[in-house]
Amino acid sequence: MSLDPPTYLNSLQNNIRARPIPWEGAVRAGTITEDELKKIKAVDKVRKEQRKQTVESDLASYRSLLVGGDDGKSVLESAAKRADVIQYILVLAGDLINGKYSRYIPSLPPALLESPDPYKPFLPLLSQSTNPEDPIPLLTSSVLASLLSSALLTNAKSTPKTDEALPKLYRYLSTLTKSQDSGLQDIAVQEYSALLKTKKSRGLFWKQREETVNPLIDILRAATGGASENGSTLWNGGGSSIRSATDGGLSGGVGLQLLYHVLLVIWQLSFEGSM
Question: What distance in Å separates the CA atoms of residue 43 and residue 51, rounded to the nearest whole number?
């Protein structure tokens, strides 16, 4: 099932797309190279067919640009000190690899995943700030969710790099579900849903259930107007079944869109009989 991009995230991305970036100044300062700038401009603010043709004719170069390669770092790593450049590149990367967006290039995610470590430039950005509203971790989580979802669906067997990256992304997203901002919560829950499409990803999610599942149960409790006697400790294990999370009526307290997305995640987890 395809969900519309979260409103909060969509608004952030649109604002960043509209910002002017002093690219030539970034080149003069050594933040990015002339070659990197050429590749960025070749796919930014151009027609869909032109963008698709440009990327597909040089997938190796765009893989190197976004995730690095034998010949150098990702542009995200080389531009580490320029928050404006990093934000813009993250939005551009998300546009190119997320199937929900019109600028999506279907051949790019598999090409990126051919890298020995496609998640390396992104994972450090998740912990760049403890502020849940910081744009860089938020944008990074969206890109990682798209890339990991593609990896999970296209590879019959999970890879060590994917198994290492998933728990880190789950951990970051759990900080959003614990926030009091429903927009941030919805970003996390929708990204959870995009990832919970394989037995392996659901198993890793359940393994971290104190971080991942418990805040979702708290959202459901808020929706029913109920309070937890002991936080979410009921869901720490001990034979409890996740299916009982949806017992009882649901009304008020939580927006209907967020509530629907939380229930969708619970439903996805229910495919695993042991949970």
Answer: 5
Amino acid 29 reads A
DSSP 206: H
Hey, what are 178's tokens? 């614990």
pLDDT at residue 155, rounded to an integer: 75
Q: pTM for this structure? A: 0.87
User: What residue has token string 């992104």?
Assistant: 122
Q: Which two tokens stand for residue 1?
A: 């099932």
Residue 233 is given by DSSP the state G
Helix spans in 68-208 (H): 75-78, 83-97, 108-112, 123-126, 135-154, 160-177, 182-195, 199-207
How far apart CA 112 and CA 125 sit, in angstroms, is: 18
Tokens of 161: 């790099």
- Reply yes or no on whether the pLDDT at 4 is more than 80: no
CA dist 165 → 144, 157, 205 (Å): 9, 15, 12
Encode pLDDT of 5-23 as tens digits. Answer: 688 899 999 999 999 999 9
Cβ contact 117:161 at 8 Å:
yes
Q: How many CB atoms lie within 10 A of CB 244?
A: 11
φ, ψ of residue 131 in degrees (nearest 5): -80, 115
